[in-house]
Structure formats: structure tokens, C-alpha cells
Design brief:
GO terms for molecular function: kynureninase activity; pyridoxal phosphate binding. Catalyzes the cleavage of L-kynurenine (L-Kyn) and L-3-hydroxykynurenine (L-3OHKyn) into anthranilic acid (AA) and 3-hydroxyanthranilic acid (3-OHAA), respectively. InterPro entries: Kynureninase, PyrdxlP-dep_Trfase, PyrdxlP-dep_Trfase_major, PyrdxlP-dep_Trfase_small. This protein is α/β, with parallel strands linked by helices. It folds into two domains: 145 residues, Aspartate Aminotransferase, domain 1, CATH 3.90.1150.10; 226 residues, Aspartate Aminotransferase, domain 2 (3-Layer(aba) Sandwich), CATH 3.40.640.10. It is built from 13 helices and 15 strands. The strands form four sheets. The chain has a seven-stranded mixed β-sheet, with helices on both faces. Helix 2 runs antiparallel to helix 10 and helix 11 runs parallel beside helix 13. It is globular. The mean pLDDT is 97. The structure holds pyridoxal-5'-phosphate (PLP). Pyridoxal-5'-phosphate binds next to helix 5 and helix 6.
Length: 412
């Protein structure tokens, strides 16, 4: 069943000012990839850049590359580029570690800074690693507790005992987006700090960390930023806090002078202190290719296309909802959501597997969510249209109701 999309869909692709970016990615034939929010696609320039990094920088130039190819400057150099994507000053973002580890560093640092307050406030159903790291932190720092409340109750619950509000800016499951400036202002009103997890925001929605008064943020390199599986993450610390926070992972790469080889730890200046050990340079170089691609467009253009794609998807699936017991999990108002849309169904897992078998790659989030990411750099309007046609076919024929779609792998 390969139908030609109607004229207005083809026209939308034709008029898309970002259409040329699709050829900047390697996308397999016959696949509609709607999972760039989980693992971004491979930029076409990455393999050659990696080959050069491996064969020339590592293979030929060996250890001299720390200086000659500026490996040592890579965490800050790529951080400064990501800063432009997230609306931060160039000296306020550094690439380091994983999102989970960066959260640990910033959460402990923030709690120590807010020594007279006990509460970390978050929402139930936040991304698992955020809640797990917060739980781990309360085990290490005595007298601190994690309190979770529904998103709509968070602002009212911030009080004088709240040390840190920890939220994922665009929710990984529902796609719901918090108003960063509003939550931050409410927290500051009560003297609390906010840590924003930008994993589903960076490269997907316009961000203005500086303008929103944000304190601290972390985010992922392998989703919308196309850095590759397990790409290094980034962290942001507002300039006013950089000198006042101390990372609990006081590794040598965050030292004021790592190559003085002193016994005594002395925190580096500014954002540098939030690095820990030696960066994964090959992974960082791969991330830089993805980040560079984003810098060739502007976030407002990305936002417009992301909104148009996700709104088209919602418009096309809405008629299927009642008939097939599907429901829209994401906010209907594009201003309230990020760049992915989720649907709930009792058989979401099997439907997801059946879609993948037909070349439509979205993902499943337990227990009942089907998630579709609309990465504006490489998704076409005709992809959205075709994906919904295939979904409709799978639902109306109950093709999902087959033994082969019930088996679960380790990664779902
Ligand atoms: C993907 C994601 C992470 C990833 O954390 P890792 O440490 O890279 O495994 C963290 N938080 C959110 C909200 C995410 O979506």
C-alpha cells in the first residue's frame, strides 16, 4: 500500500524552506524515521569526519592532537556552539559526561548551595533517570528528600523549603512543554533554583536559557542534536552561579590547572569546573557534526516546521482515534508541546512493532504510549501522511494482532 500523497501535502514539501537539509542525512530507503527524538539520524558528513578523526588525528598525529587538533578545547568549543542553540552565553555551556552524570553533578552542587533547604521538587513520571539520580542523591546527602507532584501543582508547591525544582522541559512521554520563564520566576520568588532537563528540547524547540533567567540545565547529545548513540551530554550553569557551585565529581579536567599535576584540588574558573575526566573525543567530534548542522538554520524556522509537522499528524490521526480506541496524549495546542506527539492505545507495543515492520519507525513507551518524533531537519510532510496511512491500515486490518509483534527485546 503505497499511495501518492494528496497535492496539498506534496505542495507543503515543495514549499518547505528546510527541505534541502534532508540530503544532509543518511536515511535508509523505505524507512519513515519518526524516532529522531530518541536517536537522531546519521548526518551525511559524520562518517568522513570520523574517518579523519580516527585515521589522521588519532592514527597519525597521536597525542599531539590534544593541541594540534584542539582536542583539549573540544568540550568548550562544542559547548559554545550548543549555547547558541539553547540561548545561552558562549561561556556558559560545556559538553561533558552523560545527561545522568551531569544531573548528579548539578543537583548535588545546587543542594549544597541551598544548604538550609531540604526539598527537591519534581513530577511523577519524569524521565526515569532524573528521578533515579535524585533518589540516589538523597541517599548521599542526608536530610534531603525528593517530592513529586503533578505538573500543574508544581508552581504552587514551591516554598521556602524547596532547594531545587527539577523538571524535564519537554516531557519525554507526553511532549508537554513547561513555560521555562514562568516556572523559573516562581522558583526564584521563593529562593529556589531550577534544573531543566533539555533532552527533548535542544534542537527541537527554541530555547532562551539566558532570557528565561534559568539557573541550571542539562541535555542530551544523541537525540535532536544527532551526535550518535551515547553521544556526550551538555550542561549549563548561569554565569552568576558558576563561581559559587562546586561539583561533587572534582576530576582533574575541572581543575584550575590540570597539567600542573598538583595534589590539591582547586576548582577551575567558570564553566570549566563542571568537567570531570577526559572527554570521549571521538564521540565529541561526532556530536560536533550534528551541532554544526543545526547552526546552519535558525530555531524559529525549525520550530515552525516542527509545529506544522506535528499539527498535520494530529489532524490526520484525530479521525482514527474514536474508531480505533486511540487517544491523543500530547497537548493539542502546539504552543504547549515539543516536537513529538504521543498516542495511547491498549496495544501500543504491538502496534509499534507492526509499524516498524512496515517501515514506520516510532517508539513505544511503557505501558501504553506510541511516540512519534517529528525532527524538522529531515522529516517531510509526505512522511507524516504516509505514516498515518500505514497506521490506519494496521489498525483497520488488526495486522498488529499477531504473535510476531508480541515479543519484547531488551530495548523497547
Ligand atoms: C534521553 C534522556 C536522558 C538520557 O540520559 P543518559 O544519561 O544519556 O542516558 C535524560 N533525561 C531525559 C529527559 C531524556 O529524555
Amino acid at each position: 500500500m503505497t499511495q501518492t500523497p494528496p497535492k496539498h501535502i506534496l505542495d507543503a514539501d515543495h514549499a518547505d524552506p528546510l527541505a534541502h537539509f534532508r540530503s544532509e542525512f543518511r536515511l535508509p530507503e523505505g524507512i519513515i524515521y519518526l524516532d529522531g527524538n530518541s536517536l537522531g539520524a546519521l548526518p551525511a558528513a559524520t562518517p568522513d569526519r570520523m574517518k579523519q578523526a580516527i585515521e589522521i588525528e588519532w592514527g597519525r598525529d597521536l597525542i599531539g592532537s590534544w593541541n594540534s587538533h584542539d582536542w583539549i578545547g573540544a568540550p568548550r568549543r562544542v559547548g559554545a556552539k550548543i549555547a547558541r542553540i539553547v540561548g545561552a552565553g558562549e561561556n556558559d555551556v560545556v559538553v561533558a559526561d552523560s545527561t545522568s552524570v551531569n544531573l548528579f553533578k548539578l543537583l548535588v552542587a545546587a543542594l549544597k548551595h541551598q544548604d538550609d533547604r531540604s526539598k527537591i521538587l519534581s513530577e511523577p513520571g519524569n524521565f526515569p533517570t532524573d528521578l533515579y539520580i535524585a533518589q540516589g542523591v538523597t541517599n548521599v546527602l542526608e536530610g534531603r528528600q525528593l517530592v513529586t507532584l503533578p505538573a500543574d501543582d508544581i508552581i504552587d508547591a514551591i516554598d521556602e523549603d524547596t532547594a531545587v525544582v527539577l523538571l524535564t522541559h519537554v516531557h519525554y512521554k507526553t511532549g508537554r512543554k513547561f513555560d521555562m520563564a514562568k516556572v523559573t520566576a516562581a522558583a526564584h520568588d521563593k529562593g529556589a533554583l531550577v534544573i531543566w532537563d533539555l533532552s527533548h528540547s535542544a534542537g527541537a524547540v527554541p530555547l532562551d536559557l539566558a532570557g528565561s533567567g534559568a539557573d541550571l540545565a542539562i541535555g542530551c547529545g544523541y537525540k535532536y542534536l544527532n551526535g550518535g548513540p551515547g553521544a556526550p551530554a551538555f550542561l549549563y550553569v548561569a554565569p552568576a552561579l558558576q563561581g559559587r557551585l562546586e561539583t561533587p565529581l572534582s576530576g582533574w579536567m575541572g581543575h584550575a590547572s590540570p597539567f600542573a599535576f598538583n595534589d590539591q584540588y582547586e576548582a577551575g574558573a567558570g564553566i570549566d569546573r563542571f568537567q570531570c575526566g577526559t572527554a570521549s573525543i571521538l564521540a565529541l567530534i561526532s556530536l560536533e557534526v550534528g551541532v554544526d548542522l543545526h547552526l546552519r538554520t535558525d530555531m524559529a524556522a525549525l520550530q515552525r516546521k516542527s509545529e506544522a509537522l506535528s499539527s498535520l499528524f494530529i489532524a490526520l490521526v484525530t479521525p482514527l482515534c474514536e474508531q480505533f480506541a486511540l487517544s491523543l496524549v500530547s497537548p493539542a495546542d502546539p504552543a504547549e508541546r515539543g516536537s513529538h506527539v504521543s498516542l495511547a492505545h491498549d496495544h501500543a507495543f504491538e502496534i509499534c512493532q507492526a509499524l516498524i515492520a512496515r517501515g514506520v519507525v516510532g517508539d513505544f513507551r511503557a505501558p501504553e504510549v506510541l511516540r512519534f518524533g517529528f525532527t524538522p531537519l529531515y522529516t517531510r510532510f509526505s512522511d507524516v501522511w504516509s505514516a498515518v496511512c500505514i497506521l490506519q491500515d494496521i489498525l483497520s486490518t488488526r495486522a498488529w494482532d499477531a504473535e510476531q509483534f508480541r515479543a519484547r527485546s531488551r530495548v523497547t
